[in-house]
Amino acid sequence: MISPARPQLSHPRLWIGLFVAVSLAGCSSLQSAVDAVGSIGSVVSPYKIDVVQGNFVSREQVQAIRQGMPKAQVKDILGTPLLMSAFHADRWDYVFTIRRVGQPLQQRKVTAFFKGDVLEKIESDELPSEAEFVASLDGRRKAGPAPVLDASEESLKEFARQNADKAPTTSQSADVPLAPPIVNYPPLEAPVR
Question: Is residue 114 in some structural domain?
């Protein structure tokens, strides 16, 4: 009896043909996968951080500065300047920028001019107060009514009742005194010999 011829799986042409067929079949799948990722990318975007650079100087800080103040006192009020040039030793620049996603760039500049060690004049952009600046940072949250922080006697009793069930049980009774603290501690360093 003659058995039918079976293809040999170790034949190199068979492997190459199989590899080409799988590769070509993957091309259409690859394109559909790229299309799917593209559609997901339009909905989901990567997290982008807020970029804050420089020194924030508020309107209140600039109002506290007076002509004739020494450099040390100006530095105490405004902080360390961002720019102190060797070519302009009598000029301090305080520059502030904040870049936030979905909001316009905020950029402000304050320049203090000195004559020797004494403040001669100060120039600044329109500066927000500290409260205005903090409010601008929290722009993503919707303004709404503040929650009521008042609890009635009934709600406090209900809260105590609910939490009494969840309170952890202790193995020690309140009447049993705790062990006295250890007062004999080992030395921190080894004695020198």
Answer: yes
Contact status, residue 120 vs residue 74, Cβ threshold 8 Å: no
Q: CATH no. for residue 81?
A: 3.30.1450
Task: Judge whether 28 lies within some domain.
Answer: no
Higher pLDDT, 117 or 32: 117
DSSP codes, 95-141 = EEEEE-TTSPPEEEEEEEEEETTEEEEEEE-----HHHHHHHHTTTS
Backbone angles phi, psi at 54, to 5 degrees: 95, -165
Q: The domain containing residue 109 runs over which residues?
A: 51-136
Task: Give, rounded to a whole angstrom, the gap between the first and last alpha carbons of the chain.
Answer: 99
Q: Is residue 6 part of a domain?
A: no
Q: Domain count for the chain, please give it.
A: 1
pLDDT score of 71 more than 70: yes
Whether pLDDT at 45 is above 80: no
Q: Which string of DSSP letters, residue by residue, matches 54-86?
A: E----HHHHHT--TT-BHHHHHHHH-S-SEE-S
